Amino acid sequence: MSVYKPVKSRFYHYDFQFKGTRYSGSTMCTAKSDANAYEATLRKQIASGLKVVPKITLDQGFGLWWEMVGQFEGNAKTTEGQLEHLRRLLGATTFMHQLGFAEIERNYVARRRGEKAKGRATLISNASVNRELEIAGRVWAYIRKSGYDAPYAEWRAHRLSEPKERVRELKPAEEAKLFAELPEDLAAVAEFAMLSGQRRTAVIELLWNRVDLDDGRAVVRTKGTGKRTHVDHSFPLTPRMMEIIRSRPKVGPRVFTYVCERPSPPRPDRPRRLAGQRYPFSKQGWARKWRQALADAGIEDFRFHDLRHTAGTRILRATGNLKVAQKLLGHVDISTTARYAHAIEDDVRSAMLAAEKSRNSPEPAAADKVEKRANSKR
């Protein structure tokens, strides 16, 4: 038998020739005896003249894709969770070739839409379901390309409608109230996000070694497209942004940290935390203080991500140049930046209203105008 286990793979692979044609691939078996049996069956099928398209279960297919592709992506932890939801609802032992439109719509889409978002009382969003469907489409395509029986490819037919993202700008009066309520360390994060237009994760994970105060630039990791899930994005620093950075205590690799108020025990993702010590911000650990500050300031319908919207809107209003806003925000496609065009439209509308108002204002009577001209000639 010719089965073998590649380095860093948990599955045995086969590799043999029959009448000058080479056959190779994964047996999707973790036990050598099972792998030998798989290869023996495959050899018999090929020798009998059958066109062999090996079957593969969902668990095996996901395992192969994760091993060869998924684990190396920048957002691997998120992807792993998305795969788990698909595996749980579609059935780990279900063969991939058995899943068609009806099965996916009934067993995954309908059931997933009825589940609540983690840690919330609301149902999971359509956008989250769509992201998981996109992952499923990528897995099926990879497994199919790898020679296994996974024919289904109509994943876009399951897409759910998503509400058009609204652009919420922080008004000057709201800004003053919000920053009066935010704790000092969180206020520094929020103001830097509002001035730079960078995403929440990019700001809280900003590293000291990626900040050049002499050159007035910083580099963050941000979302990419396609296989490049994360890319470096460089942006200039204004004097106020550099002032914020200089005010931050340099106690670790990250620029933005906070003072721990209450001790907490160790967790799998971080060590024990002591009161009075500084630690880097987590992605969600500050959410309660953020919501409390919004409530105390009387600000409704405002998310942390809206600070990015505020930056985009203000830069576009100041310059009237979509390209400038696109460069700051790091948008790959300018059509994404176009959502901020309302800022220019608002300014145009204000100018039009001012012109209309001046047109409708009462003008001096013609006789008065003649008299004024006559008096001016004397």
Largest sheet, described in full?
A: 3 strands, antiparallel
Task: Characterize the quaternary organization of these chains.
Answer: single chain
The chain-level structural class is: mainly alpha
What is the first-to-last residue Cα distance?
118 Å
The count of helical stretches stands at 15
CATH architecture grouping of the largest domain:
Orthogonal Bundle
Indicate the percent of residues in helices.
40-55%
Largest beta sheet: strand ordering: 3-4-5
- Provide the CATH superfamily of the largest domain: Intergrase catalytic core
SSE order in H/E notation?
A: EEHHHHHHHHEEEHEEHHHHHH
Shape, principal axes of CA atoms: elongated
CATH topology of the largest domain: hpI Integrase, Chain A
Biased composition (Basic and acidic residues): 356-378
GO molecular function: DNA binding
Domain Tyr recombinase: 165-353
Protein name: Site-specific integrase
